[in-house]
Write a structure and sequence with these properties.
globular; Rossmann fold; ph1033 like fold; Aminopeptidase
Length: about 500
Amino acid sequence: MKEKVLLDTNMMIYLLDDHILDEKISKLTKILYDSDKYIIAIHPKTFEEARKIKDQNRKDIFISKLEVYKIIDNPPKATEEFNKCVGCKNENDIIDNEMLYAVARNCVSYFVTNDKHLLKKAELINIKDRVLSIDEAIEKFKQEEKVVIETPVFIKKEFLYNMNLNDDFFTTLRFDYKGFDKWFIKKQRNGEMAYVTKTRDNKITSFLMLKEEDENEDYSGFEKPFSPAKRIKVSTFKVADTGKKIGECFIKIMVNEAIQKNVDEIYVTTFEKQESLIYLLKQYGFELFTYKNTTKSDDTEEKEAIYVKNMKDKSQYPYVQLKDQRIFIFPVIPQYHKLLFEDAEREYQISIDDTQGKNTSANAIKKAFISNANRKKIKSGDIILFYASQDKKAITTLGIVETTWNEFESQEEIFNIVRKRTAYDEEELKQVARLDSLVIMFKHYITFKNPITYEFLYNNGIVNGYIQAPISIEKEDLEKIIEQSQTQNMFEIC
């Protein structure tokens, strides 16, 4: 389970609002962005501060971005004794003290702030080692984040009767769900299948099982029952082999099935302790709907949270809202394209003997792209169309920018950020990346079944010459591309 790092409200405003990021906040974000050990947490008081924003549109956007992060659930309120000890003179002190109290009561592992008064208060109550200035946080977390070279992932859909129920992988599931073995055997006999990854000695390392449900399904066991609809239930979602973006690949699988089967919703039941899974789900549009009681193997009951993704809501992944954001075409050389967008490379296969981690980026929805072109003004929300140069000479994929960086202290710093999201290993990266390279973190939304050829782009006036560097195009140009690719159902044009 990841340790929670609480950021003060001012840092969250800089991080999420439309500011140019402060250099140190940018550096801290780089470290925590894709950490295996830490997760950014939000105190409910930050929402109270956000609700004071006067501009309604800016307030709504800011709050929606906050909701993606891990929110501290029902933190204890600072006592009168605590407030008296650290000092409490005004409303700002009340909010600051609530943050500190969350640390003192171990709701989070660390609190990062540059507020000198808060840092002094932390000394008074002997938690200075966990209330860090931004410089201290950068130094601490940078040292603890280890560089790991990932190995390839192979996901296969297999019959349950070809799986060993006594595999150690199922031990925790057996404990959390009474009657798990009986349920599993029944599914085996019914010829059910699941998506799995395995080690070379046939041990299961991840498991995704989906079930299609119709309007007649019984949801009476839920505290708030569903209305009749077509749904995909995620019967089982477990990833033991972490760090390889299998979870994101599972998200892609369930979303693709939902689109193919034209269901209204996808839902997942999970215990609140599964913080990493919940964080992942929320990033792709799943929202808490209700709870249900689940009996464990020791006959105790525990509530499971039910998270739902509305597949008819086109404001969420995998659908693209086409507003007034900027649109770019980026050329990608064949070698990199094959590794980053494997699903656009139907003839491309990676050997099981490839241990350089070059398939990990293909599994991820979030990917990293490194450019040395003079395009530093790309920002969150912009659309990038990736053009496979040299061989295909066609636009194959579409992504939406999540964040960008273009100032680095070393190539090692770049590699630490992109290592889980790029096809390059560290040595290859040294040949490509500069300290002023543009690193773009984006979500891969669409792979065009009908790639958009250079001839189409040129004949329709979208480009006026060879695509050798990033170029910007207009909204009307993208609409032509959408029509040609026959992906109108994946877009909402605002």
